[in-house]
Sequence to fold (764 residues):
Amino acid sequence: MADFGGGDLEAFRTEVREWVAANFPASCKGKGPAVGPEREQETADQKAWRLAVGEKGWGVPTWPKAYGGGGLSPAEARVVNQEFARAGAYNPIVGMGTMMFGPTLLEYGTEEQKKRHIPLIANGEVQWCQGFSEPGAGSDLAALSTRAEDKGDHFLVNGQKIWTSGAQWADWCFCLVRTDFTKKHEGISFVLFDMKTPGVEVRPIQLISGASPFCETFLSDVKVPKENLVGPLNGGWTIAKRLLQHERNSLAGGGGSAGRYASGRSPSALAKEYVGLDEQGRIADSELRARIAKNDIDLKAFQLTAIRAMQESRGNQGPSAATSIMKNAASQTLQERAELAIEVLGSQGLGWEGEGFSEEELTFVRNWLGGKATTIYGGSAEIQNNIISKRILGLPDATKSA
Amino acid sequence: MAVLTEEQNMLRDAARSWVQEKSPVTAFRKMRDSGAELGYDVAAWNEMAEMGWAGVIIPEEYGGSAFGYLSMGLILEETGRTLTASPLLASALGAASALVLGGSEEQKQAWLPKIAAGEVVATLAIDEGPHHKPEKVDTTVEGGKLTGKKTFVLEGMAADLLVVSARGADGVGLYLVKADDPGVKRSRLRLADSRGAANIEFAGAAAEPLSGGAETLEKVLDRTRAGLCAEMLGAATQAFETTLEYLKTRVQFGQVIGSFQALQHRAAKMFTELELSRSAVEAALTAIDNDSPDVPELVSLAKAKMGDTFHLVSNEMVQMHGGIGMTDAHDAGFYLKRARAAEAAFGNQAYHRDRYARIQGY
Fold:
């Protein structure tokens, strides 16, 4: 869609700017949305900001006004984002609801479902988690076997989900269940349930990084009302694929969430301190220096590609082929960067916690570990390569999965 | 592909048409087989000049079209696809840049129109050893006479005009030397990539200085590097596409070999690296057109990245074609040889990684 800048947009920008100035609390500057573990500690100001943005619908600016969205055009939405950024104001309406479930429900949900769930996503009140993967269904998600038995006015659900991000703080879950065991893809249904429903048990999984962002979710005789079925019975796979597309699109701009593990000082900055300089003022290890330069170059090439992909998709040439490579390029380059950081830190890069290590050093260790997930989740590097090979390069599908 | 203006789109489409029709890889093979003295087909070069390609970065008042470096890159990319040999990079981009940036009005008038018309072939003579080290210059100029040795001068035998880096009283700078000066002795190099090159010895050859010293030298080198990257991008992209086509057609074990996952993933890797390289090359050329202070950084980034990618793709092209990739009859060997020559010219990956680090302050 082409942008039509000009008078109306500038008037709107002024309106947004003034509204942000009037509504974004000073105490929130530099903070972020209070979601997940932080929702409990949400300050009065953070809540006020969330409700104010929610009331305007500007947290999900392009969603229809009828369901609590902002009803804005993409150009206007960009203005909102720019003005928020300009004032150092974060978007308090974030999470799986906004990123993937909401857009999907807007496409596939009934009027009742949309009216019930969308407004509470749009104002950030309800947080969602994703019940997709299972111990036996990771890359091969369609192999899922959590069972949903038809009991007349409800489904009785039994099974186990894994890698449910934020399940311990979520209010609701969108979940793939099996309603037909005779067909693989056409036996999957898409249902919603309240995490407080009896029979739902959440157990956080401790990762090698020490954090527990993901959970196992056990479902024992969970009653899911029939009205919580989204789309047709056994028609859930199509909806799931669309949802995953939304997930990828929202991550695509930055090459995925790989960036969250990649903040902090650059390897070159660390090397100047931990390895030292030679007489010419250059990093004293030329072999290391060359590897650091290669990583810096790879990262910059990725950033230039992100810009190019955005320009090309705005240029109406259709989606850029470059987007298909983004997740792999970003995650692999950033993992190499994390490895370089650990290497540069030497024995100071081996601390787990406590005395003898700075906060920064410990953070590098945790992020190096946590970052190993980026080539695994959201479509593993191998799956991404399969997608590139088949969909972009047109090579034949040899696996029996399809 | 960058978002191009309509003009640039037309230029690229015209270049692609001409190259695919008039200068496919078979033309390169024919030139190579004929042992062409100059390392390119003069008739083809004349056609390129007639289409205005030699004037693309030259200002209009000197007979050029001033479309800029990204536009020149578009043409070079197309020629790169089919390994088309010509003095386009050396003369119309490298030497022409030196005159545009450092030539006096008289020098510009004397040379640029003829370069734009393809009548004069000019080239840069920079290196003095097996590795590109433009800072290290033993060639000297005294009293207007230039003495020293230059190696690996592209199109060195075909050139009428040499743009030579040398050390004068004020330090390092570029000098114009006529190739037919009695103080110039050229020896033809027969390179693996069959392109034209020479070693040149200077003994008191008459030399006219260009202005700007070492600063202009670096700017000229960066423009040449960026243009070379564009040619490499075309060659690497074609090498990949040819290989991909083979994966889709070669049958073994009852299926096309492109259905084997190991090969699929290696193809995906090459595709990824090509996309990343394209972004870098286009950013460098655009920065030059914008006269951005980021040019040195972006050029070294592009040359390092493109070099690694072409290195990978050229190796994979041979390997994935199996036995036939090893035959001279197949084009894979041409792309492999061209890759190494292009990687080495004007600074290889190691040189540019080091330069990148230096620019970043480490």
